[in-house]
Amino acid sequence: MSDQNKGLTYAEAGVDIDAGNALVDRIKPAAKATARPGVMAGLGGFGALFDLKAAGYDDPVLVAATDGVGTKLRIAIDTGLYETIGIDLVAMCVNDLVCQGAEPLFFLDYFATGKLDLDAATTIIEGIARGCERSGCALIGGETAEMPGMYAGGDFDLAGFAVGAMERGTALPAGVGAGDVLLGLASDGVHSNGYSLVRRIVARAGLDWDAPAPFGGDSLGRELLAPTRLYVKPALAAIRAGGVHGLAHITGGGLTENLPRVLPDGLGAEIDLDAWALPPVFGWLAQAGGLDEAELLKTFNAGIGMVLVVEARRAEALAALLAAEGESVARLGTVTPGAGMRYSGSLLG
Q1: pTM
Q2: Using one digit for the tens of pLDDT, what is the confidence trace for 274-320?
Q3: 254 contacts 316 by C-beta, under 8 angstroms
Q4: What pairing do the DSSP bridges indicate for beta strands 267-272 and 329-337?
């Protein structure tokens, strides 16, 4: 029989169903570790079930968020360092949910690749599970797609989908007014935005990912793969304590674009750039890339990953609560009459 007449298999076309099944079996313990009240079934069904009443809600409103990791994935692929990229995926979704006042309940992931590498995929999804567990969020499902011809070599892409809930009438932002205080929570580095510019700067500097990071720490690749900080539990603790009028997750667009999203029409913000120290990674990016302060504040988080808009009389108590929850808190400034972001002081010195 000629090769032309020989029957083909899906595996010969580049898709290994057995490998996909093996991956599900490998990640079941990690997913099980994220179980929380409301989860009704494990992995493997055609859909995932969640019981809102068992989760403790009486009159819930659902909140959904979806995101990816962006071109930070390119660094993970090029270095083969996959341990934390799943945490980024979860953080980019659940940090958005909590800004609406919602508690993240469950998470689903979508992992697409050209050729399934069981070890790499397991490591990535175990990272997703760690992010879920640290956020009190259950990993209840997902999809792995092996797509030869769409992704080359070891390339892959990730997307995440988170669903949270809040009791009706508790949505944020609410009650934001002039005089409210802005509390900033420190970031853990670049998080997951601006990496197209980061990679351009690294290329301009002529550095390899395994070179020592010029701003200190481990290798450049490892330092730039530091995962997005998960703010869910401290933020929920602050919301439940009372006095929080709004939260802004500082992602793409930086402080300049994200904080105005929680301010009503006619209100702006005054921020003192001397209120916190610029982390070394951003100082290096600014110097090596020739970035001015405005570009830095509009592209990166610049050291502040979440901002809480709080009632002035509660600001000191809430700052202490957040510090007790493990956050580094800076009093950034206030909400002011008149639209627009106004900066004083200097990040770059």
Answers
A1: 0.95
A2: 999 999 999 999 999 999 999 999 999 999 999 999 999 999 999 99
A3: no
A4: antiparallel
CA distances (Å), origin 90, targets 118, 130, 143, 191, 318: 21, 9, 15, 12, 25
Quickly tell me which residue has 């100082």 as its tokens: 283
Residue 257, SS3?
helix
CA distance 64 to 48: 15
CA–CA distance, 232 with 63 (Å, rounded to integer)? 14
Q: Which residues have C-beta within 8 Å of that of residue 202, sequence separation ≥ 6?
A: 209, 220, 224
Residue 131 and residue 31: Cα distance in Å, rounded? 11
Whether the Cβ atoms of residue 332 and residue 304 lie closer than 8 Å to each other? yes
- Cα separation, 209 vs 58, in Å, equals 50
- Encoded tokens for 279: 């982390």
How far the first Cα of the chain sits from its last, in Å, is 76
Residue whose structure tokens are 């600001």: 315
Burial 123-155 (b: 16+ CB within 10 A, else e): bbbbbbbbbbbbbbbbbbbbebebeeeebeeee
Rg of the chain (C-alpha set): 22
Can you tell me the distance from the alpha carbon of 232 to that of 216, in angstroms, rounded to the nearest whole number? 28
